[in-house]
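Could someone model magnesium ion with this protein?
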Amino acid sequence: MPLSRLHLSNFRNLVEVDLEIPAGVSVYYGANAQGKTALVEAVYTLAIARSFRAENERELVNFDAAKDGELAIVEGVVEDPNDEAARLRVIVGYRVSESTAATGPGYRVSKEIRVNRIRRTAGELVGLFHAVLFSALDIELVQGPPSARRRFLDILISQADSVYLKSLQRYQQVLRQRNRLLRIRREGRAGADEMEYWDGELVKEGAWLTLRRNEVMESLTPAFVGHHQDLSVPGENPQLRYRPSVPLPSEPQGIEDNYREALRETAGREQATAATAIGPHRDDFDISVNGVDMRAFASRGQARTLALSLRLAEAEALSAARGTGPLLLLDDALSEMDASRRARVLEKASLYPQVMITTTDPEQVSGFFGESAFYFEVSGGQITPVVGIPTA
Ligand code: ATP
Ligand code: MG
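Reply:
Sure, complex below.
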């Protein structure tokens, strides 16, 4: 379902924004540091219930507003023009408050999510409104740590399938308990009997998550390869491969046995580190081109194209899972791209029902879409609709 309205208060430098977001392609242009990424960050928050870039959610609250104890609010209305009843009003609010913990004065950020006025958890929000974001930070998908690739899969599958996120949350809870027990054991206190229970839970959730991620990775691959070949120079053969820390069996049923076996093998190591050594929280996936590992050897342009191809494959997978295309957010995706490649990306984007594109140079987009896109100027935290086609 498309996002039809967006209201922001005190979200970064976007102090007060009230926008009607059109269906189809809309373009948000402006100089550096005006609020373009803040806008897509806010919109994406409605889908994944958190910021894609803030280390700490306190960063999201406008500096002046935080001093005055005001809230930061992201509010979106998502609606199907043909189905009045399916309307969703999603609000994500952040409040920064002073806290006087034992460690000295600090602050606390609290987040509150409401869907049609009813208080919801982040886990309940994810999956209601679907979005895929491509940003400059996505180079991390290729060259960054394994956690960046795990997050990619987790966000994709969580939006596609709400059972996955529940299982992931349960797994993380089990992991914490099991690691606590490992620490207790290292200190020579008891706990062996409880361990059996937590091992069983770990294997159950972990095995399911591993299989699910592997399955999604396999189903993602053809689209990924196709997009990459469309966007790169001829002769590049990319490959994706899930790298589980628990070996995958030939038949899915065998995974729990493999998992138990692998746990036995790492027991010594776990004893020393008091941390669970294997499982989905340690997995990764390989990205290679013509057999060369791109995590270590991608050129800058290659990394960008691979990351964009992953995002386009993500959007396709979400469309297939949900029966309708997600909102596509392209944040500064076109810089460093030559004109013909840019046109190919925009053509692919235009297949989605709703696309929001940010750029410093509107002509990069208006040259392709002309009057079929809507244009907005972003300047000093204000976002203003523009009549006609902007010129630089
Ligand atoms: P670029 O073209 O360089 O990517 P942008 O338009 O995407 O620029 P944003 O990343 O959206 O810029 O940042 C807009 C401005 O908001 C920046 O000047 C940034 O310092 C500022 N900013 C970030 N967080 C806050 C905050 N909590 N309060 C006030 N201003 C903030
Ligand atoms: Mg930006």
